[in-house]
Design brief:
It is a single chain. By secondary structure, this protein is α+β, with helices and mostly antiparallel strands. It contains 27 helices and 32 strands. Helix 19 links the parallel strand 21 and strand 22. Helix 2 runs antiparallel to helix 3. It is globular and about 125 Å long.
């Protein structure tokens, strides 16, 4: 209608616009600008989502796992669609049916007139609500269902294990794979049906289908609609009761996990009764449609509620109080035995070999002669202490760093297997000088670390590690580390042909200090479209604008080994300790991975993070800990993973062939994992028994080394792991230690992971000693015989052997003197903690040798100001409460065992170390003084004079208690001694013992 058709009026004679009945101008819809803005916003969101999916696809494709990623994504999409439909459709259908079947009546009473007004008020929004509410609920339901993709895949691919639970006779696979899925499904459907019921009740009431009592009769359509939904809910509740009965197999009590006497004789029968009652409720709801009366269904629901209280709660409580409590030991003994057996089986400790070790405390000359092969394997370098030493002596550039706790490994060097302490020289971007920090430098110049640094674990030189050059001792390898534990930023590598290399490379600098990446790692971002996609996902336009990004560029992101493995296989639980090794000329990060469950029947659960941090080391500490969110009651080291430090490639190897969970995942993703047979012998030499699994098993065996239910209930011989003496009063359990050791019944030493126990309570005496064979061997795809064998030494209760805490107390308060008898150990430590130095206690290693327990603890000193890094100064050895110490392990052992221990520790005459060349391995300890030409009288005189002065300076420093100055004087004395030896007529060399 044109304006001319409107009546004229107004002061200026213009047309009067139409108005609503209340006199207000009509509302106009959103303008074109608003619509365009909304359209643009929606388009940007879609583009962002597509870009994110594409870049994710590129990342997985670069690793060769594109098919597995798409399979996982399609599974999540399928569950999202099904979950959305299952949630949204019933709600939408309920709203539609309520409106469709509404009674066509004229409101007569006041209540009906009020409802009519409500209907009139909501009518303008009815269509929008009828679509919006189901859509929102469907989205929430879809997201919830998609989040259960792991549970779904395990249910689809899990198979029977061949082992049945003793209560219900069901296969263990039902609890691992079926019960979690069915429990989720019942809960999910219950929520969906409740939402549908509430929507139906509201809509039917508003449109008059449901009439309150006394105002008439509800319509048959409303009755049928609500009765069907209520019946479905009742059937779901009946199903839930049955699942609740099965879930009792993992219910935790104060002592017992699983079904106990009360559950077996009261709770489980009650669940079955309630399930039958719930089915009867469903039948009565359907029957009420004919009578159109809620009386019988309401009576049934009320009866079900009363039954759930009386039969489901009161009756079991009466049985527990008046039948079980007075005779608990007798009645629950068979159920507790189930708990003990299942816990030991689920945590992999059922085959632990336990022997009684009646340790002696007497010390005699030559006592260790029978253990001569084990003693040289005592590691003196503590990986948790010497990291700062590595940083000071081997970082070489301020932007390189090492992990706070280094790793222990072993290599064949000069024909012998040698324990080494290893650290990767990684890039720490935060240590780059502030004036050199910009986008180009951060992401295209400082891109990688360089080289492994390793030292012998059993020897030192001048208090410092005895460095080993990997390139010389092991062989040439690719030293560049583009993927590592410190790599938490992305880098762009590669360049055009006409560009100079830009990446900072060798720590030593020089002509070859710049490099251009030559590998296949990362994602190719050479095309403008890919650069635009990453600019969008990273919210960084420099991907498109910087000249450092070109046609040959590759993007490296998600660069830490743990993150890469987690992204490839998110269903794995990863070990906290990732360690590097040189394998086939490349640095490989080795990641131990676990399959875990919380559903193994009758098995007691322990917290993963609790055992990793040392807060959980027994059932007692588990109950006292708040770390309960990540507890598992089944754990297997099912996968060994490697991440290449140069190209980031990820390899997963199925390690445990008997684990049903990893078999289910292998079936779900057939090409994701390689078989164990594909592991090379060289990689096998660096695989080891994982620490987190040992920590879990150590915590389990603290209580479950007791295999008799009656003894377990009585609480006899409960153990705990002692607190770490090097951590003071922090209450953290002592960590386990890798070392070469022969257990009492073994003829030859092998690499082991070890720990000790003390009794539960205040006494800190030795109660047990746990060791596991940790060496996987060197055969392609075949672990060494005995790998993973747990051995437990149990110390009789009538034998008193000092535990870790007592040993530490003996050390710090010892009056034992060193070889020259000049001062006591207590005085030495007190003096060392004053003036310019401070003491660092190393790992206290315990060895079952000499028919008793030998404890060895290295002690380090460092400067308390200025340049400060720990240096090994003395070694303390204790046996049966007797303490001895000296500059070397040999000297300490000989003093301890009446002048002759019968063995050599291996550190008295250190092997010849590599010079500090700072070459490709980067393993030198610094520049050595140039040796003068042989037969140089003048040089010899100067060297002797220097030796005299250095000796005088050292004695003066000792009198003043300045151990830092004494250390420097000893270094000078060593340097002049070497010059003197080289300057003698026939040349030569010299070393100071223990230095």
């Amino acid at each position: 209608m044109s304006s001319a058709s409107w009546p004229h009026g107004g002061d200026k004679g213009g047309a009067v616009p139409p108005r609503d009945h209340d006199g207000t101008p009509p509302r106009r819809g959103p303008g074109r600008v608003a619509k365009a803005a909304i359209a643009i916003a929606v388009l940007l969101v879609i583009i962002s989502i597509v870009a994110g999916l594409w870049t994710e696809s590129l990342w997985f494709s670069a690793l060769g796992f594109s098919e597995e990623w798409w399979s996982r994504l399609s599974t999540q999409a399928l569950l999202f669609i099904i979950g959305g439909l299952v949630t949204g459709l019933p709600v939408g259908l309920s709203l539609w049916l309520a409106h469709r079947t509404r009674p066509l009546t004229v409101p007569m009473s006041a209540g009906e007139q009020a409802l009519a007004q409500y209907r009139q008020a909501i009518e303008p929004f009815r269509r929008v609500t009828a679509w919006a509410l189901p859509t929102v609920l469907g989205l929430l339901g879809g997201l919830t269902a998609a989040g259960q993709w792991q549970v779904w895949l395990l249910w689809r691919n899990g198979e029977a294990t061949g082992v049945t639970d003793p209560q219900f006779g069901r296969d263990i696979g039902y609890y691992l794979f079926g019960l979690p899925w069915w429990s989720f499904l019942v809960g999910f459907l219950t929520v969906a049906m409740l939402a549908s019921l509430l929507s139906a009740v509201f809509a039917h009431y508003i449109y008059g289908g449901i009439v309150p009592p006394g105002r008439g009769r509800s319509t048959r359509a409303a009755f049928l609609h609500l009765a069907v939904i209520a019946a479905v809910l009742a059937v779901l509740r009946a199903w839930s009761y049955l699942l609740d009965a099965h879930a009792l197999t993992t219910r935790e009590g104060e002592v017992l996990t699983g079904v106990g006497y009360t559950a077996d004789h009261a709770i489980i029968p009650t669940k079955y009764i309630l399930a039958v009652a719930a089915v009867l409720c469903a039948v009565l709801f359907l029957a009420s449609v004919r009578s159109r009366s809620w009386r019988l269904p309401m009576i049934a629901v009320g009866t079900l509620v009363v039954l759930s209280i009386v039969v489901g709660a009161i009756y079991p409580a009466l049985v527990e109080t008046y039948q079980v409590s007075p005779s608990r030991n007798t009645l629950e003994e068979p159920y507790l035995q189930r708990n003990i057996n299942a816990t030991r089986e689920a945590h992999g400790v059922a085959e632990t070999e336990e022997t009684t070790y009646d340790a002696v405390s007497d010390v005699t000359s030559g006592q260790l002669r029978q253990d001569a092969q084990s003693i040289p394997g005592i590691r003196l370098l503590d990986p948790a202490v010497v990291s700062q030493t590595y940083q000071e002596l081997q970082a070489q550039q301020q932007y390189y760093t090492f992990q706070d706790e280094l790793d222990v490994d072993r290599y064949e060097i000069d024909g012998e297997t040698t324990d080494v302490v290893v650290g990767a020289r990684e890039l720490e971007l935060d240590n780059v000088p502030a004036d050199r920090r910009d986008w180009v430098n951060d992401h295209t110049v400082y891109t990688h670390g360089y080289g492994l640094v390793m030292a012998r674990g059993t020897q030192v030189q001048a208090g410092n590690p005895e460095w080993i050059n990997p390139a010389s001792a092991i062989g040439e390898y690719e030293p560049r580390i583009y993927f590592g534990e410190q790599m938490d930023h992305f880098s762009i590598v590669g360049r055009s042909d006409n560009q100079e290399p830009r990446e900072v490379d060798r720590p030593t600098g020089g002509e070859d200090s710049r490099y251009t990446y030559q590998g296949d790692g990362g994602v190719d971002i050479g095309s403008p479209l890919r650069q635009a996609a990453y600019a969008l996902t990273h919210r960084d336009l420099k991907f498109m604008l910087s000249d450092a990004v070109g046609p040959n560029s590759r993007l490296m992101e998600h660069r830490t080994p743990r993150e890469r493995v987690e992204r490839v296989a998110p269903w794995l639980t990863l070990d906290d300790d990732v360690y590097p090794a040189i394998v086939d000329g490349r640095i490989k990060w080795i990641v131990d991975a676990y399959t875990t469950s919380r559903q193994y029947p009758y098995s007691t659960a322990f917290s993963m993070s609790g055992v990793q941090t040392g807060q959980v080391s027994s059932r007692e500490t588990q109950q006292a800990s708040a770390l309960v969110g990540d507890r598992v009651n089944y754990m297997r080291n099912s996968v060994k993973a490697t991440v290449d430090a140069f190209d980031g490639s990820v390899d997963l190897y199925k390690w445990d062939k008997d684990d049903p969970i990893v078999e289910a995942w292998d079936k779900a993703f057939p090409d994701l994992m390689q078989d164990r047979d594909d592991i090379s012998g060289e990689l096998m030499t660096h695989l080891r028994y994982p620490e987190d699994l040992f920590l879990m098993q150590r915590a389990v065996l603290a209580d479950y080394h007791i295999t008799s239910a009656s003894d377990f209930r009585a609480g006899q011989d409960r153990w705990r792991v002692p607190d770490d003496p090097s951590r003071g009063d922090e209450g953290v359990a002592q960590p386990p230690y890798y070392l070469s050791l022969a257990m009492p019944e073994q003829n030859r030493p092998s690499w082991k992971l070890t720990s000790t126990y003390i009794p539960r309570g205040p006494r800190n005496v030795m109660a047990g000693y746990l060791a596991v064979d940790a060496d996987a061997g060197a055969t392609d795809g075949d672990p060494a015989q005995g790998y993973g064998k747990l051995r437990l030494l149990s110390v009789p209760r009538n034998t008193t052997v000092p535990g870790v805490g007592q040993v530490q107390n003996d050390i710090v308060s010892s009056n034992a003197t060193s070889g020259d008898g000049s001062q006591t150990l207590q005085d030495y430590l007190n003096n060392a903690n004053r003036g310019g130095s401070q003491v660092h206690f190393g790992n206290q290693l315990a060895l079952p040798v000499g028919e008793g327990f030998l404890h060895v603890e290295p002690i380090y000193l460092s400067s308390s100001s200025g340049t400060s890094y720990p240096q090994l100064r003395i070694v303390v050895a204790t046996f049966g409460g007797k303490v001895a110490w000296g500059p070397t392990l040999d000297s300490a052992l000989d003093q301890l065992f009446e002048g002759d221990a019968g063995v050599e520790g291996g550190d008295s005459t250190p092997a010849e170390g590599e010079p500090g060349s700072g070459d490709e391995g980067g393993d030198g300890g610094g520049d050595e003084p140039a040796a003068p030409a042989a037969s140089d009288p003048e040089a010899l005189r100067e060297a002797i004079a220097g030796m005299e002065q250095a000796y005088a300076d050292g004695q003066e420093a000792l009198r003043n208690g300045d151990f830092a100055a004494y250390d420097q004087a000893q270094k000078e004395l060593k340097r002049y001694l070497e010059q003197a030896a080289a300057a003698q007529p026939e040349g030569g060399s010299a070393e100071l013992e223990g230095n």
